[in-house]
C-alpha cells in the first residue's frame, strides 16, 4: 500500500471523526444516545489497561484462531480432493451451493440449542462460517492449474501424487491463502457475534454486553472500535504475508492481465 493511499485513508477517517464531533457537539444528536468520537477514542486509549477488556480480547482471539485453524484443516484437503476430481465436485456442488448462502449468524441460535459447551459452540459457528471461502478458493485454485504443466510432468514419468505435490498444490497455494485471509475476517465477525448472542465468561462481545447493561455507550463503541482495528490488522498481516510468499503469482496475474 502506497504512502499516498495511506494518507488519503487517514484524511478520510479524520474528516469523518471531525464531522461526527461537530454534529454531536452542536446538539444535533444527544450525548447520552451517542457520545462524541473524542470520548470514544479516549475510552479506547484507556481500554488496553483494563484487565477485563484484555481478558475479553484474549478469549475472542483464542476462539478465532482455533476456529480458523480447524476450518483450514477441513477445507483445504476437501477442496484439493474436489478440485482434483471434477466428477465428484460436480456431484457435491449442488449441496455446497445450497449450504454456502445460509447466513452464518443465523445458525448461532441453533448452535446454542444443539451444543451445550459454550466455547465449543462458538468455535463450531466460526468453523462453519470460515470453511466456505477457504473451500471455494481451494477448488478454484486446483481447477486453475495449467494443464500443460501437468501433462509435461506426466510425460517425464511422474505419477499423480508427484504431479499433485509439484504442480497442483503450489499453483493452488495463492488461492488458498486468499481464502484463509477472507475467512479470517469472517471468523472474527462470527466470534464477536456469537459472544453477543450467547454470552459467556469473556470475550469482546461479552464486554460489549456488560457495557450495554450499564448504559456505557462509550465503552461499547470503544470496544467495537478495537474489534475493527483487530480485524484490520489481521487482514493487513495476512495480505503482506500473501504478497511476500506468492509474489510470483502477482507477477503472473499482472502479466496475463496486460
What does this structure look like?
The chain starts with a helix and ends with a helix. The chain has 258 residues and is mainly alpha-helical. The C terminus is likely disordered. 82% of the residues lie in helices and 0% in strands. It is built from eleven helices and no strands.
Can you describe this structure in just a few lines?
The chain is an all-alpha fold.
List keywords for this structure.
258 residues, mainly alpha, 11 helices, 82% helix, globular, disordered C terminus
Q: What percent of residues adopt helix (DSSP H or I)? A: over 70%
- Provide the succession of SSEs: HHHHHHHHHHH
Q: Indicate the mean pLDDT.
A: 83
Q: How many E strands?
A: 0
Residue stretches low in confidence (pLDDT < 50, at least 5 long) are 251-258
Q: Report the principal-axis shape.
A: globular
Cα separation of the termini: 21 Å
Major sheet characteristics? none
Q: What's the tally of helices?
A: 11
In what range is the share of β-strand residues? under 5%
Structural class call reads mainly alpha
Radius of gyration: 22 Å
